[in-house]
Structures are given as C-alpha cells and as structure tokens.
Amino acid sequence: MTDRIYYTEPSCRSFQGTVTRIGEHNGRPTVVLDRTAFYPTSGGQPFDTGRLGTVSVIETLDEDEEIVHVVDTPMSVGVVVPGEIDWTRRFDHMQQHTGQHVLSAAFDRLFDNRTTSFHMGTEASTVDLAREVAQSDLERAVEEANRVIWEDREVSIRFVSADEAARLPLRKEPVREGTLRLIEIKDFDLSACGGTHVHRTGAIGMIAVTNAERFRGGARITFVCGARALRSFRQYRDAVTGAVRVLSVLPHELPNAIERAQLESKDLRKTVSRLQGMLAVHEASTLLEGATLAGDLRIVVQALEGWDAAGLKAIAAALVSQKDVAVCLLSMSDPVAVVVARSQNVVIDAAKTLRALLDRFGGRGGGRPDLAQGAGLIGKVDEILAAARDRL
Ligand SMILES: [Zn+2]
Questions:
Q1: pTM for the complete prediction?
Q2: Distance CA 389, CA 392 (A)
Q3: CA of 336 to the centre of ligand 1 (A)
Q4: How far is the CA of 119 from the centre of ligand 1 (A)?
Q5: Within the chain, which residues score under 70 in pLDDT?
Q6: C-alpha of residue 227 to centroid of ligand 1, in Å
Q7: Short-list 126, 190, 120, CA closest to 154
Q8: 47 CA distance to ligand 1 centroid (A)?
Q9: DSSP 224-258
Q10: How far apart are CA 193 and CA 221, in angstroms?
C-alpha cells in the first residue's frame, strides 16, 4: 500500500521514497514506492510527471492500493530515491480542479444544476451539467465563481467516516466507502474528492467559460482557469487583432464584416462566372477561325493564357456546340489543366484522348467520350500540345 503524500500535503513537490516493487506496463519499467507525492490519473484529473532521482516518470497509475510510476529506466527494489514532480504541470492541474469545484458549486447553489462529470483536457476542461443552461444563467454562475475566487477563501482537506459524511451537506453523493476525503471551500462547497487542490481560491486566478453546448439532455461547459485563462485570452486577442487589421473594423463589428465579405464574394463569383461565359463564346469563335482542317473536322489544340479549368471548359463547350469540332485546351499554369471535347457528330473519344495525355504527362482526371477534364500534368506546354495534336 502506497502512502499518498498528496492526500494531506497537496503542495508537496519533492519527497523521499523507497522502491518496494518493480514491474512493467506496456513494455515500460514501473516502480512502486512506499510513499509518493505523484498523483495518478483519477477523478477527472490527469497524472503527474517528474523524476525519481535521475529517472523520468512518464505516467502515474492508480492500481488498487498502490501507485505505479511508469519510468524510462528500470530501478531496483530497496533503493531510496528522491522524488520531484513537474510542478508547472501539477499546479496547472490544481488550478483547473479547484476551479471546477468552485464552478460546479456555483451552478449547484444558484440553479440547483448538478455536475454529472468532469474532464480535464490538455487545453481546456469540461463539466457536464444535469440540465441545460440559459446564457444569462451561465454568465451569473461564472461571475459567482470568480467572486469566490477573488474572495480568496480557504480550501481545506478533512477526513470523515461514511456515517459522518451522510450527515454533512455534500454537493454530491460519495461513491467510495470507508473513510472519505472531503475538500471544503469555506462557506461555499463541500465535496468528496481525492484530487489535488490549491490552498486558497485566490490561487485559481480566474475562471472563464470558452464554450457551452447542449449535451445528453443537459449541458457541457468548457472552461479554463488560471494560466490557461491568460493563454486563452492571448489566443483570442491575437486572432481578433489579426482579423481586425485585415478587415479594418472594430472588434465588435467583426461578425457583420465577415458576413458582408462572404456575400460580396458570392456575388462576385456569380458575376465572374457570367462574364467568363460571355467571353468564352467570343474566345471560341476566334479559336475556330484558326482551326486546323482535316476533311470536315475542325481541330483546335491551344494553350490559353489567363483561363482556369472552369474557363477552359466553358470555351470548349462553346466550341463543340457547333458541328465537326474536336478540341484540346491547356492552361498556361504549372501544373497544367486540360480539357478535351468534341461535337456530338464526331466519333473521337475525349476520355481516351485525355487518358493518353495523363499516361504520358502525369496528373489525374476523367470524363465522358464527349468531354473530359484533367489537371496536374507536368511537362512543356509545346510537348503536351504536340501529343494532343497527334491524338486528334
Ligand atoms: Zn474534485
């Protein structure tokens, strides 16, 4: 049985312990000590990392009565080692976990809305609430939670029997039997919890909700505390500053400005497409004048400057709307886009012609016997044009 130092001294970051057992977990060596300050994953809070002497602790597991340290180098039974936990990581977890107690208690006290589960992620944490939350209630709960944080209330640990616990106003029913560890936030919250917490609520710094959504008949609230709240603020600030600079508007005008820009761009796309269609007809008649004649068949094989794949297709369609035309158009871009098409009365297979070009110059594409499109061809435009002329 491991003596869990963090149960009574959550701010202990270095200690001495003796190796009592060694083993293996997923191919890595493990170590059990007689006592440890390392917190194992449980109750929504992730494990601690750190060092045992010169050995790195990669993960910490809770296995019944023992705490198992997954390490990067094997150790020997009987060795006494100094342990040091990664305090930046742990303190962050303490800020998030204590913040969760305060936030859950705020929802519970103000709106009788129970927390059904808690998860601490690497970026943000979530609590799931039994019932949905109106936006105004959410803001009220967050304000209440921050008020309690700024009042810098004492956070204390006590141990009680199950009988004693039954007579106490615990926020939620304890799941464990026997002796219970209670976390009390003075005059605000009392709940059974095995996690690590800051000594006073002031150390949480602040709590900010970044998202709230409906979840399984209730609500899922995403939140950040302490240093994470600052980091989150910086991310939002940088994103907003960047967007404000690009759009030349004030921050609160951003949603409208983006919507306006989207509508404008949609209108422009429509206009461009209409004009391209008109220009394609004009371009097609010019190309047809310079077509190569093979009996009745008029062959147009050209690379065109300033047209994208959609434009090439529009020109090709305009060309083959007439009788006796076979056409292969390339873009001047690199890699090359290509359209192969023919009039309904012509027997050439456009898809096969395209396939032959793709086989030789690479790229991908396909189509029907009367119209085929490809892109990503690599090669000199003159060579691709010559190959197309040979095929048509
Ligand atoms: Zn807890």
A1: 0.77
A2: 5
A3: 60
A4: 10
A5: none
A6: 19
A7: 190
A8: 14
A9: EEHHHHHHHHHHHHHHHHHHHHHHTS-GGGHHHHH
A10: 20
What are the tens digits of pLDDT across the range 249-306? 999 999 999 999 999 999 999 998 899 889 999 999 999 999 999 999 999 999 999 8
For residue 184, what pLDDT is reported? 97
* Residue of 112, 107, 94 lying closest to 45 (CA atoms): 94
User: Strand 207-215 relative to strand 218-225: parallel, antiparallel, unpaired?
Assistant: antiparallel
Task: Work out the angle between the directed axes of helices 226-247 and 254-289 (0-180°, nearest 10).
Answer: 50
Report the Cα 292 to chain-centroid distance in Å.
56
* Burial (0-12, 13-18, 19+ Cβ within 10 Å), 293: exposed
Distance 175 CA to ligand 1 centre (A): 12
Tokens of 276: 């391209």
Q: Sign of dihedral through CA atoms 319, 321, 322, 323?
A: positive
Q: Output the CA 58–ligand 1 centroid distance in Å.
A: 23
Q: What is the pLDDT of residue 190?
A: 96
| Count of beta carbons in the 10 Å neighbourhood of residue 229 | 19
Cα-flanking dihedrals φ and ψ of residue 23, to 5°? -170, -155
Which pairing describes strands 180-185 and 155-160: parallel, antiparallel, or unpaired? antiparallel
pLDDT of residue 217: 95
- How far is ligand 1, taken at its centre, from the CA of residue 167, in Å? 20
